[in-house]
Amino acid sequence: MPKLELGPIGLLPPSAAAMGIFHPESGSGMDLVEGEHVPTDEAIKKAAHELLTRRNPTLFPGPMIVWGWNEETDHKAELALALVKEVPGMNIITMPDYRPIYPKIDPETVINPCHPNLTVNHNKIETCVLIGIHCHFANITLKMIRANTNCYTMAFCAYDGHEDALLSLSDLDGSKLIKVTEAVRKAKKEGVEPWGLTKEGKEELEETAARKAAAKAPSKEDTSLFMGELEQGLDENAE
Questions:
Q1: Per-residue pLDDT averaged across 150-158, rounded?
Q2: 167 strand-pairing partners
Q3: Burial class, 128, CB count within 10 angstroms (exposed 0-12 / middle 13-18 / buried 19+)
Q4: What is 145-159 written as a DSSP string?
Q5: Could you give the CA distance from residue 225 to residue 134 in angstroms, rounded to a whole number?
Q6: Which of 91, 90, 123, 130 is nearest to 107 (CA)?
Q7: Residues 176-187: pLDDT tens digits?
Q8: Using the 8-state DSSP alphabet, how is residue 10 labeled?
Q9: How many Å apart are CA 154 and CA 36, to the nearest integer?
Q10: pLDDT of 224
């Protein structure tokens, strides 16, 4: 079985399917980790470890969760937030819209399928979870991230899963998402040190928080007043 490697791979990496990597059949009790079929419990344990130990873990929720279509979606969103709370320093960056964002994307606010690598690289994200993103857009996003970054991608999919993710959980329902959160709690109890609680992690998170706070409230030294002369407009009644 070919194995999917962590990026950056290059400008046009082959798709996982072209490499002969396919997701296990639904109901088989198996999921996909780095191109290999493994038992679901093992994949969940691996997901918990990556979320805790890699730099700047981030949840990328898509429209199927962000927009709150129904009660099931709302419930899954609550469970996703519960997972985020268990991972120290974990961030949330939404993908609320699939349309291209031009001429400028704010990578601290959103992730966009046209240029997800900008968001990943700008925020120094080395592991992420895609959830609630329509499959065809998730496939594009995952391939671009693998091509241009060293981010360990994970896809939590309600359907067949995603071969281009380094770790893919399929048929995701509430109970399966709860198992991921429980695996994170168990890993912490067993002594796995979260990146967000390491010296380097704390320092980086504090610097990021300070930078964002300063951007929202710039000091007087960082502001400039408009002192130029205003052009006088045309007066239709002038002679």
A1: 96
A2: 33, 154
A3: buried
A4: HHHH---EEEEE-SS
A5: 46
A6: 123
A7: 999 999 999 999
A8: -
A9: 14
A10: 58
Asked if 82 and 181 touch (Cβ cutoff 8 Å), the reply is: yes
| Backbone Cα Rg of the chain | 21
Are the CB atoms for 25 and 8 separated by under 8 Å?
Answer: no
Average pLDDT over residues 139-167: 95
* Look-up of token digits 């962590």: 6
Q: pLDDT digits over 33-74, tens only?
A: 999 999 999 999 999 999 999 999 999 999 999 998 889 889
Phi, psi of 10 (to 5 degrees): 145, -175
Domains of the chain plus CATH, in order, are: 30-199 (3.40.50)
Report yes or no: 65 and 174 within 8 Å, Cβ to Cβ.
Answer: no
The residue to which tokens 């082959």 are assigned:
14
Q: Measured between alpha carbons, how far apart are the two ends of the chain, in Å?
A: 85
Task: Count CB neighbours of 117 within 10 A.
Answer: 19
93-140: per-residue pLDDT in tens? 999 999 888 878 899 999 999 899 999 999 999 999 999 999 999 999
